[in-house]
Write a structure and sequence with these properties.
It contains 8 helices and 10 strands. With about 260 residues, the chain is α/β, with parallel strands linked by helices. The protein binds adenosine-5'-diphosphate (ADP) and magnesium ion.
């Protein structure tokens, strides 16, 4: 059972030490990683995924439950508690979605429940994407948004990996807030890279990166929680604008009335 993941500080690109010695992430927490392009966000996510042990360019170490990672976690995919979902994830399988998920259930030796789990996973995925996924669709034909939605659902429902890492999913056409909400119900450690203020405010704290280095760790303050509903309305309005532009409509200004 994974209950905490700890990041022990290493160094940034110029060799300066991370500003923290240690960050503990507990089960049920949602954590975002923020910072400009090139600041080391993906690198930090990769350190976690690789269970770094002072053997990556950053010199960081990852502990599980306060201990170095047991070898079976590193080398046996069935034990790996971490699911990493990136912009570039693609499938090597061309099976229909339903068969892929069922096969995955069998690998995870949860035979008895496999019908249920496949249906559950599809239902989960379809809450995250605007373009519903049918069990008969082929894996390789899914859109970027559908792919990411399915991977998140697979990680949450079928693999039930306790740790989910998401690298920059904003433009991938999934409902990010819904993903945060659903993953919170599944009690995981959920770590994601985001440029999106509303999503950042939904998290318990955020890790700020600069020049490859952990600059600071900020807990979401009461004041920030307070403004998050306003930020949400702004975000909604922007989403509506984006959607209209995408569909070739003209903007009228009415899209912004509710947030004025
Ligand atoms: N701590 C570090 N030490 C050495 N190189 C680093 C470090 N952090 C990031 N880098 C390098 O800097 C570049 C940008 O980092 P990346 O993690 O891709 O940034 P981001 O995801 O924030 O855009 C990459 O080539 C990465 O290998
Ligand atoms: Mg990146």
């Amino acid at each position: 059972m994974v209950s905490t993941i700890s990041i022990l500080g290493g160094r940034g690109k110029d060799g300066r030490l991370d500003a923290i010695d240690r960050i503990d992430l507990r089960m049920g927490q949602v954590v975002s990683i923020v910072g400009p392009t090139g600041s080391g966000k993906t690198t930090l996510i990769n350190d976690i995924e690789l269970f770094a042990h002072e053997d990556t360019p950053t010199g960081r170490t990852i502990l599980i439950n306060g201990e170095p990672v047991p070898p079976e976690f590193r080398y046996n995919p069935a034990c790996n508690p971490i699911a990493l979902i990136t912009q570039h994830t693609t499938f090597l399988s061309d099976l229909p979605v339903g068969e892929f998920l069922a096969a995955h259930c069998r690998v995870r030796s949860r035979n008895g429940q496999s019908v249920d789990l496949v249906a559950q996973a599809l239902q989960f995925a379809n809450q995250l994407t605007g373009e519903p996924i049918e069990p008969t669709y082929r894996m390789t034909e899914l859109s970027g948004g559908q792919t990411r939605a399915l991977l998140i659902a697979d990680a949450a429902v079928i693999c039930s990996t306790p740790v989910v890492l998401l690298d920059e999913v904003e433009n991938a056409g999934i409902h990010r807030a819904r993903a945060v909400e659903l993953l919170r119900q599944h009690r995981k450690i959920f770590i994601f890279v985001t440029h999106d203020p509303w999503i950042a405010l939904l998290s318990d704290f955020r890790i700020v990166m600069q020049a490859g280095r952990i600059l600071q760790v900020l807990s979401t303050s009461d004041e920030e929680r307070h403004i998050s509903s306003h930020v949400h309305r702004l975000d909604d309005a922007l989403c509506r604008l984006r959607e209209k532009l995408r569909q070739g409509s003209r903007l009228t200004g009415r899209e912004l009335q509710e947030v004025a």
